[in-house]
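User: Hey, quick favor. My workstation is busy. Could you predict this chain's structure for me?
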Amino acid sequence: MLVVGNLAMPTDTKTFPKVLDPQDTSSGGGSASAIAGAMAGSLIAMVCGVSSKGATDDEGILLHTTATRAQELSNLLLEGSRNDAVAFQAVRTAYRLPKDSDDERKTRNRAIQEAWATAAQIPLDNAKCCLDVARLGAELPGHIGPNLTSDLTCALLLAQAGGLGCLENVAVNLPSIRNPEVVARLDQEARRVRDQLAEVAVLPTSWQPTDDTKRKAETR
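Assistant: No problem, here it is.
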């Protein structure tokens, strides 16, 4: 259950099939972007799991720790994809509230503003998770088998795309928020995450493993 102001919204939505259904408008780019980040996290966990076979003790610890955190982030992003869809529904629900009396209009306006703020905060939180996924993956070159390079590259690209997509959903919701302090905070945080995403190097497909990595791969 996601509480948005006075609105209690169920969070048992399965967003992945909804994102794939062009006739379904209950989820959109925010949910899809979070799912991209979740896929990236799971890919990194898989890469670490395969690479841990025959790894040294120190590398084994690094790979295990990275895999555990990557899967945690993947789970958070799957939940975040559901929350993004629910937040969108909360905006719709708030606009449908009665507005006949002054009290009803005040309640409705407050609910609308709380819903828009939540609809911007959730994709921002998801973008931060995508950033964490990208940072995890960026530490792996030189510690994985060369046959897993393309998987890692895909994970990093998905994390980048997911993070940037989530930030687009923050930006599109900001104009609907009337509180300038809330807008300024969300905008500043979003800009910081965007800059940090740009600093995370995406592993190019032309990356070549070191001789040490090749030797470790040959012994596995």
